[in-house]
Amino acid sequence: MAESRKVAVIGAGASGLVTARELRREGHRVVVFEKSNQLGGLWVYNPRVETDILSLDPNREIIHSSLYKSLRTNLPRQLMSFSDYSFDCAENVNRLNFPGHEEVLKFLNEFAKDFGINELIRFNTEVVRVAPKSEELSSEEVFDSVVICNGHYTTPRIANIPGNHNYRVPEPFKDQIVVVIGDGPSGHDISRDIATVAKQVHLTTGSSEIEVSKLDNYANLWNQEKIDHVDENGEVTFIDGSSIHADIILHCTGLYDFPFLETNGIVSVDDESRAVGPLYKHVFPPKLSPCLSFVGIPYQAIVFLMFELQAKWIAQVLSGKVLLPTEEEMLADVEDHNRQLEEAGIPKRHTHQYIDWLAARVEMPPIDAGLTEMYWSIYKFVGQVGWSGYRDLWNF
Ligand code: FAD
């Protein structure tokens, strides 16, 4: 008979919501802890920014959202559905291919309402400690299993470079010289937003193989080399030796951070490779499974579908329907995986064909080939037309 466990889910963002649904479907008793007063995680727009502009003070008030006002999804709406719950189920505001953030929040709220997830969530409840059960502290709540769904875009990746992580609107950057660190979709969007008012914007990458050049048709926006160092006056020196004086440095990068997790080093975050581990298939720490698991670690994926499949897998492992390999086998798999990625020169956090692997674990068919094709077509298209305007030009 399937086992029912008492499971804590940390976070009521997209990953926590779908995890709660899957756990409950599988017959588990679920409590979702959410430190804010509403669900949706990073899709909740908050115009306020943190007061500590370096986000370094551990006692600062943390504002979870990294969302800026103009943000539109970087994946098309077709790739933002769950397998059995279409993005278009919700009565959405408009039908843009790449909708605005308000629409995603609406979708997640509808999802939670339709599956009765709200009643499982304890709002305004921040988890400050997760540790193996101890005898001494009786005030703690005890669960059979904890699933960590806390997202990874709140703590900026500072990399010893001072700067600000909080971007909402361009106006405060008027006439400033701004260096933007991180050339993912957000870094590109934000640079172009700011370039409408700033004196100069320099978008830097982690790569040393960039040709310094103006971007698109902007007179004041440059693609820059990797930063070598920044001195205390804001003088930014790039690895080719050139330098500029920056008024503001903006970080558009995120970090895995589990300040509440006490595992005696069994699970750790490697800042350099930006990987969490060891995790079997990015979900289970071999030594602590199935009591501890993570949803949402890889980020090169069809994200919502990946959350859902990881959650189904966790739910079925906990009920005993699906078996995990032994601890030794899982550790050997992690080592093998990391070795293969290193040999191929791919960072540990990137994954390929992972979603189909997960689907097979829970006896679901491989994901629709059309969706995978659509996903890769976006990267190809951005390669052809650049980041500027790809959302409005893309037509699959
Ligand atoms: P989050 O949404 O960050 O939710 C985590 C939740 O955990 C939050 O509500 C937080 O308050 C809560 N929490 C954290 N710590 C604690 C604690 N200790 N105790 C209690 N609660 C806690 N993905 C796409 O599919 N399409 C896109 O277009 C897209 N665009 C993106 C744009 C940006 C700028 C960013 C940063 C990411 C984007 N992503 C996109 C990826 C994004 O990660 C996912 O879409 C997804 O919404 C993340 O969900 P999550 O639940 O993992 O994390």
Automatic annotation (TrEMBL):
SUPFAM superfamilies: FAD/NAD(P)-binding domain (SSF51905). The keyword NADP applies. GO terms for molecular function: flavin adenine dinucleotide binding; N,N-dimethylaniline monooxygenase activity; NADP binding. Its EC number is 1.-.-.-. Keywords: FAD, Flavoprotein, Monooxygenase, NADP, Oxidoreductase. Gene3D superfamilies: FAD/NAD(P)-binding domain. Its cofactor is FAD. It is an enzyme of class 1 (oxidoreductase). Belongs to the FMO family. This is Flavin-containing monooxygenase.
